[in-house]
Amino acid sequence: MKRFLKKLLIISALFMPVTFAAVSCSEDAPSYAYSTKDLEGKWTWNTDNSTGEFGGTFDVNISKVSDTKIKINNFHNQSASMEAEISGTTITFSGDLNSQFEVKSGTGVISNGYQTITLKYEIFDKDEEESETVEATLSVGVISKKAVAEN
């Protein structure tokens, strides 16, 4: 029995450095740092409020303003632009959209490898003096909005 334990100890001692060397030499997976440039281009805007005046699906275009800011053209299907601040994967925005609408507070999250943006904002209609909370999903390319939400 002592002989067996001695052999096991010797074999373990021989393989331990090999194991440590293999583990310490493995490379970490490279990480990709996304930027506002990755958001540029044509996106599909979808809001489930299809019965509302501004519900449904339409195209928007996103352009880079700076390293921390983007501009969403055709925001709220109004042929107007809204600038948004980006911090990591978080979006914040507010301000006058046009003479009729003001975004009181808006937040969003970028996900799915910068392929999906979800937004939630309160929009104030200055003419009607009413506010509405809107939730929208923006997707890029040919990705189905429902498929993105389920992934």
What descriptors fit this protein?
Lipocalin; 151 residues; 20% helix
Task: Chart the SSEs and their pairings.
Blueprint: H1 2-25, E1 41-47, E2 56-66, E3 69-73, E4 81-87, E5 90-96, E6 101-111, E7 116-125, E8 130-140, H2 145-150
Antiparallel strand pairs: 1-2, 1-8, 2-3, 3-4, 4-5, 5-6, 6-7, 7-8
Describe this entry's structure for a reader.
Helices cover 20% and strands 46% of the residues. It has 151 residues and is α+β, with helices and mostly antiparallel strands. Strands 1-2-3-4-5-6-7-8 form an 8-stranded antiparallel beta barrel. The protein has 2 helices and 8 strands, in the order H-E-E-E-E-E-E-E-E-H. A hairpin with an 8-residue loop joins strand 1 and strand 2. The protein has a domain at 39-141: Lipocalin (Beta Barrel).
